[in-house]
Structures are given as C-alpha cells and as structure tokens.
Fold:
Amino acid sequence: MRQKSERRSESRLRVFSFALALPCLAAAHAATSPSACLTNGGAAFQLAASSRPIPGAGEVEASLVEAAGRKPTDFEAQRKLGEFYLQDNRIAQGIQYMEKAARLNPADYNTGYDLSLAYLDSGATAKASAQLRAMIARQETAELDDLLAEAEEKSSDYKGAAVAYHRAAELDPSEDHIFNLASFLLQHPHYEGFLDEALVFFRYGAQKYPRSAKLTVGLGVTLYAESKYDDAVRTLCAAVDLNPADPKPYQFLGKLSRVSPPLQPEIRTRLAGFARLYPENGAASYYYAMSLWQEAGGESGANLAAIEGLLKKAIAADPSLYEAHFQLGVLYQDQQNYSAAIEEFNRTLALRPDYSGAHYRLALLYSRTHRKDLADEQLALLKQIKKQDADAEQVEDNAGSIQAKAMPPRTN
Structure:
C-alpha cells in the first residue's frame, strides 16, 4: 500500500488532457492550445482501478468478515477487511471498517492515509481534510500535505490548496511534489501571481531534475501560457528528446506546432518521428499532417494527397478525433468538394457539438449550396455558443476578481 504519492502524481500528469483548455491561453490559438487542467484522483488502493476480480475474493472476504465480527475491538481485523473492500472498489464498505480501525489505533499512519484517500474518492472532502489535519498535527509529512492540498482543491479552497502544496514541496522537494505544486498553480492562473509562480516552480523543477520529461513539458506549457511561444516550443522539443519513445511530449508539441514559425523545421522533424514510432496512434498522424500542411503553404500548397492520407489514417486509428474530421473538411472545402466537406464538418459536430469552427464553415457551405434554412440554423447555433462562451468568461472573471491575492513563500 505504498508509493501513494507517485501514483497520485501520475494521475495529475493526465493534467494536460486535450478535453479542457487553459483559460489564460490566447483566443487566437484556442484551436491548438494544450490543456493544463490538472486532474486529481487515484488512491493507494490502485487494484480497484483495474476492475479485475481479486483471485479467491469470495473465500478471502468470508474469512475477513468472520474475523472482524469475532474480534470487533481488534485493530488488524478491522483494518484488513477495510483494505480488502477498498482494493475491491467497494469504497463505502471499506470506509466503514477503516473508520473502526482508525478509532482503535488513531496513530497508525497507513490506515489514516488510506482512509483519507477513500474519503476523497467518495467525495467526502471535509472528512478527508479533517482526517489529514489530525494526522499532520501528530506527524507532518510532505505526503500528507500533498494529499491535504488535493482535498482543499476539490473543496474549491484554492488558496488553502496552494499553501498545502507549497508546504509539501518545502518538506520534500521531490520531482512529484514540485510537479504537483507547479501544475496546480498552472491550473489556476486567474489567481493573481499563480501563473508567475507556476513558471518559477517548473523552472526550478526542470533545473533540479533535468531528466524529468513531465517537469519539462510543464515548463513548456507554462511558457506558452505566458505567450513565450518560441521558448515554449524549444522546451517541448527538449522534452521530446529526453525520451523519444514517450508519446506524451509529442502530443503537447503537436498542440503548439503552429505558434512558432521559426522553429517549424525542428517541430516537423520530431512529429515525423512521432508518426514513425506510433503508426497506429491517431494523434501522431494528425499532428504530422498539420505540420506538413503548414510547410506546404496552406490548402493550395503541395503534399495535399499525403496530408489527406494522414488525416484519414488518424481518423481510422481514432474515430473520436474530431480535429482530424474538421481539418479533412477544410481540405475538401478548399478543393471545392462541398458534399464531402459538409459530411466531415457534421462528423466533427457529432463528436463535439460546440465546435464553433465547424458551425461557421457549415453555414458558409450551406449558403453557397443554396440551403438557406440550414445555413440559418448553423448561424443560430454559432450565436448561441458564442453567448455561452461570453457568459462563462464573465463568471470566471467575476470569480477571479474576489480571489485571494497573497501567495505563500516560495520553496528555496
């Protein structure tokens, strides 16, 4: 039941998932911006995540239930049954017995930690915070501070989360703790100073751990958020070079492939390598196609047959890749193959209904093909999406205006 922080940090690395976009990124690059929304989650009891049955689980459970019932005041009996339920993803039952074990032996570190994780997984963030604060009062560790930060973050107490992440990194400036702190700060750039602090800590982490791909990627994404586009691309190229077999840095580099024209040859070389290493990876084919398209000079340039082939290959590998459908539609539109373009834009919207670029191009194509009713429908949907985006931005701005401005001291 150890290596808790490492496993949780890996879940935070899925921070840069492509479903969400950094609020602070420039609108002009919204279609290609990498996400920096860092997702928390995970637990020490990772067996549950696999959903695989525990061999002989029925007999084991019966034995553990019998022992726990026969020895209601025995710490080990309650703890073992609680851990069994947590590993079997029966969180509510696991909490019941872990709470009994914690009452019998409040000082047991592993029980308290795993109970806190279970509270977080069940959504009981207040209980998790209380449990962790009690443990920290007895014996503070960076691991406890890091988990408390996650609880505070899930409770939307972002100032408290920042303090706890800082404390964890101060106690133990490990690769994981620095990454968790910096990525949290990057996730909340609307707090005054948080984006600047994210850059400070990603730089510190990348210098302290120069072979860390995830810290280097985080630094690149933060530089992009600070509009330092050339520096961002150079940093992501360096992240790719740290481990050319790791697909994650390539994906971020692909997201930024259009923002630094002077570095296009370096980007293209690495994306070509991505496509060669992972021929069945839809993102690899897509990003290489877009890089070739930019090299060719746009829709009227060269290599359009190769680009079309790569986009189709990307879709075949990953039918949910709406960006590939959209770009294939753009290619067909510029070739005046309007029926094929309309089909691809509709496929884009089937996967992502709020994709404004597809609505706009469909409105143009329907108007051009004399289907005014369909064109008007697309324009109405586009207007609605823009209003929703404006409303959401206003809510975010209002929230940011009342947020705490003071920052905890930096890690030395």
